[in-house]
Amino acid sequence: MAIPQGSTTNNNVEMDPLYQARILLLAETAPPSGLIFRLQGSGAFLRTTSAMNDAFQLVTGWHPALLILQDWSARFAPWLMELSAYPVCAGLPVLAIGVDDDANAMSALDAGASAYVSTPCSETLLLAQASALLKKNQHWKCLPVERGSLIQVNPGSCRVWVNGEEIRLSRRLFRFLHYLALHPDRTFSPQEIANVLTDGRSLIQENSVAAQVHRLRKGLEKAGAAEWLETVHGFGYRLSLPPKNAIDVNLS
């Protein structure tokens, strides 16, 4: 199904790891307004909370691609270690921000933080570190998709069910559908799709992306779902589930 839309978006923005990335900021004190402005200006979907219990619910339910812990201290350590023990949190990158102190930094890294940035530091440095962590992020590969009988994706067994029927896909097409199913109704540019298809290790031409889209549609066709994979002219492609069953995920 082709859906006409406007002109193409900026490729540099689309390839920015921060663009449309879900980021959760846990800050018990008021987070820097400049950092929030820069993250949102980069196109990130940002949520903030001041409570560890609320952060836990968001991590396990909203599935951010990056967790930022502001004003790190050792008392965060037990909470972060408990969080990291949950399978749904496997591989979630965590950026801890705290005072310039070796002991404080080691407590964060020992508890499971991916990186530690000492303050004071520039917002540009924080964004660069966040981008670096997002580039390496493989967290989404561990997340199952369960949307009733519409679509189920089991990353552990690499199996997919659509409309209650199992469909067989190559490894590359499995990755493609898995990623789309985690972000229903989001439009991806050919460049973003190429990054998913190759795991970010190589570049492929736009016509190769179109060929993979065609192959995935053929796979979905076997379960009567070929029309779910839509072409958005001038932008890219998206997976749209039937409206009456689709789950509305508020990204803002």
From TrEMBL:
Q: Which residues bind DNA?
A: 142-241
An example Gene Ontology CC term for this record: cytosol
Boundaries of every OmpR/PhoB-type domain copy: 142-241
Which protein are we looking at? Answer: Winged-helix domain-containing protein
Keywords for this entry? Answer: DNA-binding, Phosphoprotein, Two-component regulatory system
UniProt GO MF annotations: phosphorelay response regulator activity; transcription cis-regulatory region binding
GO process annotations (BP): regulation of DNA-templated transcription
InterPro entries in UniProt = OmpR/PhoB-type_DNA-bd, Sig_transdc_resp-reg_C-effctor, WalR-like, WH-like_DNA-bd_sf
Q: What organism is this sequence from?
A: Acidithiobacillus ferridurans
